[in-house]
């Protein structure tokens, strides 16, 4: 019996555990790192647009934003032109934390792949992207049926 799927799942879990430990050291959970990344890419952005970019429900984003605002990582303010719009951006503390987390994640990747050649890393990346594309297509097809 081919156990490639089990190995893939177990490896993903181990990788997730590494990431989880890093995020917990900042009193964050994994999804909040995506929020850091999207805000870093977008700068100041409306809460509605941010939920769309992250492909999450606005209510889910609201809870994330409230939690991270309490910790001083992000700030919210009303748009000057349209008071109905809430704009979100990273604070300096949030920018520094994002940089620190990303450095730790990069360090993990360096340790994980230290015994791999560049060619092996490229091949693995290509295969993982193919798997990801296939899974996304399968999910899309399932949702359309």
From TrEMBL:
Domain of life of the source: Bacteria
Keyword presence, DNA-binding: yes
Keywords from the named record: DNA-binding, Transcription, Transcription regulation
HTH marR-type domain: residues covered: 1-133
UniProt keyword DNA-binding present: yes
Molecular function as annotated in GO: DNA binding; DNA-binding transcription factor activity
Name of this chain's protein: MarR family transcriptional regulator
Record organism: Oceanispirochaeta crateris
